[in-house]
Design brief:
Blueprint lengths: L27 E7 L5 E4 L8 H11 L4 E4 L3 E6 L3 H13 L1
Antiparallel strand pairs: 1-2, 1-4, 3-4
């Protein structure tokens, strides 16, 4: 068995100081679906009183390197646990 690759883990490369680099399990995800014109059709985690496009714009401004485009007019924000709730509260305070 020594010739087999080690089992897959959700950890990134074994570089000192980057133990959590590349880790995706346990992250919160906000999913986005777009119309053909690029505007937001639907988005998860949208706070009360927010439109989908406003929530997307807010997240785009407040998060850095957290958005990933996907095929089929979709995308996802990958956030650390608790960040989505924090951002929703912050957004609700700004937009009231």
């Amino acid at each position: 068995m020594s010739g087999l690759d080690p089992p897959f883990t959700d950890r990134g490369p074994g570089v000192a100081g980057d133990e959590n680099e590349g880790r995706i399990s346990g992250m919160e995800m906000i999913h986005v679906v777009f119309f053909n014109d690029g505007s937001v059709k639907k988005i998860s985690g949208c706070p009360d009183g927010f439109g989908g496009q406003d929530w997307f714009n807010f997240l785009s401004r407040k998060t850095r390197d957290r958005y990933e485009s996907l095929s089929g007019g979709r995308g996802v924000f990958r956030l650390e646990p608790g960040d989505a709730e924090y951002l929703a509260r912050e957004a609700s305070g700004i937009w009231k």
